[in-house]
Design brief:
Blueprint lengths: L1 E4 L5 E4 L4 H13 L4 E7 L2 H12 L3 E6 L3 E7 L11 E2 L4 H10 L7 E5 L10 H9 L3 E4 L8 E4 L6 E6 L4 H11 L6 E6 L5 H13 L4 E2 L3 E4 L8 E3 L4 H14 L2 E5 L12 H7 L3 E5 L2 E5 L7 E3 L7 H9 L3 E6 L11 H11 L3 E5 L2 E6 L9 E2 L4 H12 L5 E4 L11 H7 L3 E2 L1
Parallel strand pairs: 2-15, 3-14, 6-7, 10-11, 18-19, 22-23
Antiparallel strand pairs: 1-23, 1-24, 3-5, 4-5, 7-9, 8-9, 11-13, 12-13, 15-17, 16-17, 19-21, 20-21
């Protein structure tokens, strides 16, 4: 538990490395037929789970640690090897889903993947069904579509599969990555609406850097061309810089962010437009992103492609007078926690008038927080960071529980926040 006092957040932030790009680069380097050099890889707990999975399945890693990031040389095996123990993915849904698909590529044997209590509640059923229809073999140990997952090696034939589009884009990314080593390649179709499309663009971008061929459209296609290795610097993470942008805005500060690359795909680049929707000034000055000004008006937002930004958008709505509507995030209920429900619960504790929808929230902002009792992160790093921003802008400050979970994505979050003016006592 941390006690956060009223703060003024401002200054210059060196953006942390992208967690999403780090996961993808490691997994693709693991499947490559050449050495990869990855610079500035995130050392968040979730990414460490992916590094551990790659190493357990035959990758040789040379790691040079830095401050919250590392340069890593990956020597891949001829094929992913069968691990000697259960692959424990912690709370990382990306690790679990990527390596469920990758585990089909081992020469023989079975791989068991599981994680912490939260991860064991996250669905994998559609991915399992797709693997089985593509010539692989996987099963949920409980026959309920949830981890632990058991995967048989022996290769993946490929072909065509159909998956629901509205649960998780990670299913598609996992298959596109593993599909590079399938016999026939893959054609993936989706039923209903496809959410979180920018994450698929990120996957295609990194695969393209490794000379694999992916086409995105109404059908997602990957050719059976093994990745040729990566020489890549991990870009800064818009989604992890976003809490400081919001914190600065709601406390009345001015923030400069360096290290973000607006040219590469990232779902959470949407934070720029979200802030502007609330009347906050956001400007690019060459490669520097400058955020200044408080929220001045309510917003109507569709976050179907950036569900991780829901908690921060909800906090912005509290400080913008009027009714804000956030929609399109039913799939945010299937993240580390039910983010729709849990943000409603925590904002209500703080005296905010908020209504929970099936796919979002309606927030009646009053320009501030009337009261701020002890708030709970629900073991969710994104919620913890959002509630830290809420507490920093409250009149009397408040306690926020669950700071240990922020290491899933951003181990130095509180340290960096303090350097920008966050008061912690």
């Amino acid at each position: 538990m941390v006690l956060i006092g009223p703060s003024l957040i401002g200054g210059r932030l060196n953006s942390p490395p992208s967690k999403s790009y780090s996961h993808r680069a490691i997994a693709i380097a693991h499947l490559s037929d050449k050495r990869s050099v990855l610079r500035g890889v995130s050392l968040a707990r979730d990414v460490l789970a992916t590094l551990r999975a790659a190493e357990m399945m035959g990758a040789s890693l040379q790691v040079r640690d830095g401050e919250g990031r590392a340069d890593i040389v990956v020597e891949p095996p001829d094929l992913p090897t069968n691990p000697e123990d259960v692959v424990y993915c912690g709370g990382s849904g990306t690790t679990l889903r990527f390596y469920t698909a990758i585990s089909t590529l081992t020469e023989k044997g079975y791989t068991v993947l599981t994680g912490n209590e939260g991860l064991r509640k996250r669905p994998v059923g559609p991915l399992i069904e797709a693997i089985n229809s593509l010539g692989g073999w996987a099963v949920s140990a409980g026959l309920n579509g949830l981890p632990p997952i058991i995967v048989r090696g022996g290769g993946l034939k490929g072909g065509e599969a159909v998956l629901p589009g509205n649960v998780s884009s990670q299913f598609f990314s996992a298959l596109l990555i593993a599909g590079t080593m399938s016999e026939e390649g893959m054609r993936l179709r989706y039923e209903g609406e496809l959410v979180s499309k920018p994450y698929l663009e990120m996957t295609a971008y990194v695969l393209g850097r490794a000379c694999s061929r992916v086409r995105l459209g109404d059908v997602l296609e990957v050719e059976p061309i093994r990745p040729q290795g990566l020489d890549m610097s991990i870009p800064g993470d818009f989604g992890l810089a976003a809490p400081f942008m919001v914190m600065s805005s709601v406390t009345g500060g001015k923030l400069e962010v360096v290290g973000l690359d607006r040219k590469v795909p990232q779902a959470d680049k949407l934070i720029v437009e979200i802030l502007r929707s609330f009347g906050v000034s956001v400007e690019w000055r060459n490669e520097l992103l400058v955020v200044e000004g408080r929220p001045t008006r309510p917003a109507i937002l569709d976050l179907r492609d950036a569900p991780d930004l829901l908690p921060l958008a909800a906090v912005l709505a509290v400080f913008a007078r009027g009714r804000s509507v956030i929609r399109g995030v039913a799939h945010a209920r299937l993240k580390e926690s039910d983010r729709v429900r849990n943000m409603r619960v925590e904002l209500e504790k703080a005296g905010v008038d908020v209504k929970e929808l099936e796919d979002g929230l309606i927030v009646d902002g009053t320009g501030g927080v009337r009261r701020c009792p002890t708030l709970e992160s629900h073991r969710d790093h994104r919620i913890f960071m959002a509630l830290t921003a809420l507490a920093a802008a409250s009149k009397e400050g408040c306690e926020v529980r669950g700071e240990e979970w922020v290491s899933d994505s951003y181990p130095n979050f509180l340290k960096d926040a303090q350097s920008l003016g966050l008061v912690i006592s």
